[in-house]
Each structure stands twice: as C-alpha cells, then as structure tokens.
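[Solved] Which block belongs to which protein?

Original post:
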Amino acid sequence: MELDIKLEKSCGAIIWREKEGRPHVLVLQHQNGGHWAFPKGHVEDNETEEQTAVREIFEETGLKVKLDSSFRRVVTFSPKPRVMKDVVYFAAKPTGGKLKRQEAEVIDIRWLTLGEALKFITYETDKSVLRSFAAGYDFP
C-alpha cells in the first residue's frame, strides 16, 4: 500500500538590522495558529525560492529587502497527516518600504534582539535556524 504524501514548500527570511550596535530581527505572530516565527509563505507558480521570500516578506510586513542567499536553512516538518513541508529561510536586510503588518495573516510584528527573539519564537526548529544565523552570520 502506497501512501500519498503531499509536498509543500514555503520560503521566507530572518530579516535583520543593526540598532544600538546590536543585530535585531523581525518576528511576527501568525494568525494561523498564533505562533511566533519569521515572515514566510507558499511558493506560487514558477517562482524561485528567493522570489517567494521577497514577495511574502513584502506582503506580510510591507518591507522591501535584499536577500542574502548564502545563508539558507531548511526546516522540514509535517503540518498535518500525509503532508510534508519544507520551509526555506534566507537572511535579509530591509532596503525600503514601511513596516506594516498584513492584517489578514499577521497578529503582531516586532523588532527584537537575538535573545529576545529566542524567547518569543514558538517552534524549536525556528529557534534552531535563528541560533545558526546568530552563530554563523558575518555581522558588520
């Protein structure tokens, strides 16, 4: 007997900026489930991972960003029976736009230090991505 497994993919980024000499990251609380994580969303049509991340970040936060695809981490999990989902995270810096949450999908949005963000983020897999970012990213 063969199980039909549906594969899904979302892409997003750890958006960061320097404030008061320390990196701060953008975290948001998603309407769907109320969890705290990074901006992300489903790949549409023939988008690349990078195009998806940039589009979803703009839709959810109002920010335009420059992606750093040299930082790429993948989280794989099963959100429901017979579904496997990959979430691809890049690093990104804001380059424009105006911070404004997408009311239909985002409850709250905050800039936090790395330590604060680790306390807010709901899932251990996302915390692990943030730890990897903090440990290996070349901050100015």
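(Second protein starts here: sequence line, then its structure tokens.)
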Amino acid sequence: MRKARKFLLAGGIGLLVIVLSALAYVKVALPNVGEAPEIKITSNESQIARGRYLAHNVMVCIDCHSERDWTKFAGPPKDGTWGKGGEEFNKNMGFPGTFFARNITPAGISDWTDGELFRAITSGVDKDGKALFPVMPHHLYGQLAKEDIEAVISYIRTLPAIENDIPDSRPEFPMNFILNTMPRKANLQPMPAKTETVLYGKYLVTAAACGECHSPKEKGQNIPGREFSGGMEFAMPAGTLRSANITPDKETGIGNWTKEAFVNRFKQYADSAYHSPTLAKGDFNTIMPWMMYAGMEREDLEAIYAYLQELPAIHHKVTRFSKN
C-alpha cells in the first residue's frame, strides 16, 4: 500500500512538473513570430488613398478603433474619434476577459516603427512582442498583400493625433496562457487581379473578415464545415443579435439573391439622403457597420457576391434577433 501511495505521489508530482513546465514555456517562450521587419514606408497620395479605403470600407479598422455612436442604427463611428481606440470587448459580449481597441492615431503609435505596426497587423503581437487578442483578425490580415498592409499603415500615420490613454487588456485564466499560442507568422499573398473575380472576391472576404462574424462558434472558434452559415451571437441592449447565413443556400442563405440585390443592400446606406436614424430604447440595432461597408466600390461588392455564391450551400435557419 505504501509503495502504491509513493508511486501515485511521485506520478502526481511528475505530472505537476510537466504541466508547470508547459505553462512556463507558453508564458515565457511564446509567442514566437520573429523580429519586426526593418521597413520604412515611403508614402504617396495613391498609397494613402488605398489605405484609407481599406481602413474605412473593407478592413474597417476605423470601426473598432473609434468611438461608435450606439444611439444610432449600426453604431457609426463618431466624427473626431477616428482611431482614438478605447472600444471595450468584455465578458458580457462573450469574450474571455476585457479587451480594448488600441489608439492607432499618431498619439498612440508615434513610438512604433513601421515594421512593428506591420508585425502587429499581420502576426498579432505588440511592439514588445506580447500577444494581442484576435479581436483584430491578424490571422486573416497576415494573408493579405504586403502592399495593402503598408497602405493601411501609411493612412493611419496621417490621422489627427488624439490623446487617449487606453487601459491594458485583461484576459482571464486560462486565456492569459492560451493567448500566447495565437499569434502566427504572416503568410502574405499577392492580391489577385480583379478580372479573376472569384479569387479577388475571396481576397476581399478575407480582408473584411466576413467569416469571423458570419460563422457559428464553439469555444471561440469557427465550427469546421459551417463557415459563413451565420448564427454567431452578439448581446445587444434590446436582445440577442445573430449573424446571417451568407452561404448560397436558397432557403436559409443568399442563394436566391441577385448580384444587384446584394450590392444594393450595401449601397442603400451610401445614398447622400440616408442618415443613420436615432434609436429609441429597446429598438433593434446591429453591429454590422453598414455605413462603412457601403463605401466599398461596386466592383468589389460584386466580387464578394461572386465568391460567396461559390461557397458550399449550408442549410441553417438563423433567428436573427431575440428580444430580452
């Protein structure tokens, strides 16, 4: 009996040592995405214009890194807050802790090199090499073209500097360990020619991170085989919002949508006569930044439609909103 107890004790101690060693490795040795590249971006007008288009209308960096007006439909960013950061993502929204969007105006990134910004956007670590929680989908941005990432950096360097101290993000256990395993080295890809409509649409869908919101989740990860079928939940003041099924299923997705209907669904918010309405307490609202995506070029929206129509059709009926 004593020998058995000693054996079990020794085994338990050995297991504990292994677990602690593994945790220490994850905490100390990771993330490991390499040094920031030594680059110096020489900006020009066309590059800055491209970066503005991406940051406002495709990758919508300005959406999360600004103060959104949730008294209005779709929470448009408030004028004068572009890039100031501070948007909070917390447990009430389903996050494993409390995370804050960083200040990406020159007031917040003046001491970052272009290479450090490039690495953060594409690999998910800050200037000191610490892991960033992927509210910003760096695993997707790391699949874009080098020129597009540089264009975004060029643009945000031109934003008016806004002083805004942002609290440190606070991941909960065990996310404070898991977080270090999330950054990955970039796998940059060239942007396909616009004439390759489906491939170009896939590139834009990656840049816009459509699949991040339009896929059902399990333990924070997309459920394999159900990507783009909708159902991800978002807690809103008036109830629970769920993302739409954007696969080409004819009954529950967008299989019966024409290209014109799809494009016009976005472009209706680009009409100069449209103003985001002020909502009463308890009214339906959405996190979808319609007014920002509405600024996307028609040709780009058509390419996104073409790519989505090539996805596997997944029959998944989504109840878009449930009131509290």
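Accepted answer:
You had them paired correctly. Confirming on the second one: The chain has two domains: 42-189, 192-324.
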